[in-house]
Amino acid sequence: MDRRGRARRPSRARGRRRPQRHRLRGLCRRRGAQRVPHRCRAGDRRPRRRRRRPARRGGPAVKRPLVVSLLATLVITLAAFGAALGARWSPKLGLDLAGGSQVVYQPAHRISTANMNTTVDIIRNRVDAAGVSGATVSSQGGDVVVQLPGIRNPQSVINLIGETAQLQFRPVLCLAGPAPTKTATATPGLPGSCSSSQYSLQAPNLTVSPSSTASGGYNTNLSSIPADPALSKSPTTSPQYNDTHPADNVLVPIQGAGGDRYLLGPTALTGTAISPGSAVGQFVGGAWVVNVSLTSSGSPKWDALAQKYFHQLIGIDLDGSVQSAPLTQPTNASFQSFAGKVQISGNFTQTSAQNLALVLNYGSLPVPLKQLDKTTVSPTLGKSSVKAGLAAGIGGLVLVLLYMIFYYRALGVVVVSGLVLTAALLWAIISALGHTSLNLTLDLAGITGLIVSVGITVDSYIVYFERLKDEARAGRSVRTSVDKSFRGAFRTVLAADLVSLGAAVVLYLLSVGTVKGFAFFLGLSTLLDLGMTLAFTRPLVILLGRSRAVTDAPVIGIARGLASEQGLTA
Q: pLDDT band at residue 61, thresholds of 50, 70 and 90?
C-alpha cells in the first residue's frame, strides 16, 4: 500500500525501465491538435510502427512488364514478317537493281510548281492505269523523270507517256489522205481531194432518229454521211501539217487508220472540261461505250461546242493524233444541253474503249513535254548490283556481330537478336509500302542508307554497354546496374538518333533523285532503332542481368564481358 492507501502494482521485471509518464504527457500536450494514441494520454509508451519490407527486386511484379514488352515486340515483328511472306510481298527493286528504263521530260516552257505537280500526277495516274507496276514518276528541278524498273517492253509505256502532252477537242473539217512521203518535193498542204463533197462532214440535211443512236453516237463509216452541197470549196487558209497550235487548222493523223488524216479546225475545248477520272469504258446494250462526266465549268462550253458544230465530227486530238472523232448526235430534236453527261459509242472493243477512257481521264497536261534523255539498264547489271550490295552488307554485318560477341560476350547475343528483329520488321514495312500508293522502291541508295543505319543501331548498343561497364567497375553489381545504366545511356542514344532523324528529314525534303531514297531509309531505320531500344534491348538486358546463371557464366557471362571484378555479380 502507498501513503494514500492505494495498492501498489507488482514490480516490473528487473532490467526494464519504467515509463516516464510526465514526459509522455508533456509530449502529448506539446503535440496539441495532432492525433495521438490513447496510450499516449494514459502515459504509456507509443507503439512503434512496423516498417514494410521492400519488395524483392526481380520478383514477379517487376519482371512482368519486361516480359510483356519482349513478347509484344516478338509477336508484332513475327506477325508483320509472316503477313508479308503470306501475301508473297517482297521489296520492289528500283531501276538500278531490277533493270529497266528511265526517261527525262522537259516542259516546253517554264511552269509553276502547282502545274508541275499536276503534270507529275497526271503522268503517274496514266502509267498506273496502264497496269505498269513499280513505276516512279517524280519532278527533279524543272524536269519530269519517269523510271520503269523491271518492265520487259518499256517502249510501249514510253510511247504512252509521250502521248500525254495535251488533250484538245477540235471540229473535223474533212478527211485527208495519207501524209506525203519523204521523197516528195512539194510542201505538205491540203490535199486536193479534201475539197470534194464526198468527204464533207457537215450534214445539215442528215435525218436523226431519236431511237437510232445513243447520246453522243460515234460514226466510224465516213461514206455513210450524205454530202453537203453547201461545202464546195477548200478552206481559204493552208493548214499546218502535224501542228498542235490551238488557233490553227491542222492536219492530224488518225490513230490506227493506216496514215489517213483529219483536217481539224481551231481548238474549241481542252481536256480540263472533263471531270478527272470520270471517263469509264462500259458494256451497255451489247456494245462498248465510253461515259464521260463534265465539270461545272466545262459543261456549258461543251454544250456551246455541240450547238456550234451540230451533226459534225469532233476530233479528240491527243498530242497530234486523233484518238477518236465522235459525231455530235442528240437523241431528240429538242436538244438543248448534255446536262454534264456525254456518251461516246461506236465500233469499240473493250481495249479501245478503255484506252479512250484513259486518254480522256489522264490526257490533258498543263504544258507540252519534250523528251530529253532515255537511259536503259539491263537486268543483268541490276542483278550484279544487288549481289554486290548484299555481299557488302552481309559481310560487314557478320564482322560487326562477331566482334560484339567476342567483346561483350552474352550481351553480344542481345545485339544479334535485336538486329535480326529489326531486319525482319524492315523487310515487312518496305514490302508493304511498295504495294501501297507510296509505291516505295529499294535502290542502291536505299541499301546504302540501310547499311549506314546498322552502324547507328550498333552504336546505341555500345553506348548502353559501356555505361553498364562503368557502373560495374565502380563497384556496383550487374543486377543493380542494368536499369540505372540504361537511364543514363538512353539520353545519349536519343540525342544521337534525333540528330540522324533530323538530318534524314532535311535531306529528304531538299534533295532530289536517289538521295531521297537514302534519306528515307535512313530515317525509317533510325525510328525503328529507337523503338527497339525501348521495347526490346532494355527489358532483355535487365532480365539477363538479374539471372545469376547468365551473369556468372565462366566464358560468356555478362560479368566476364564487362570485365567486372570477382564478387561484383551478386
A: low
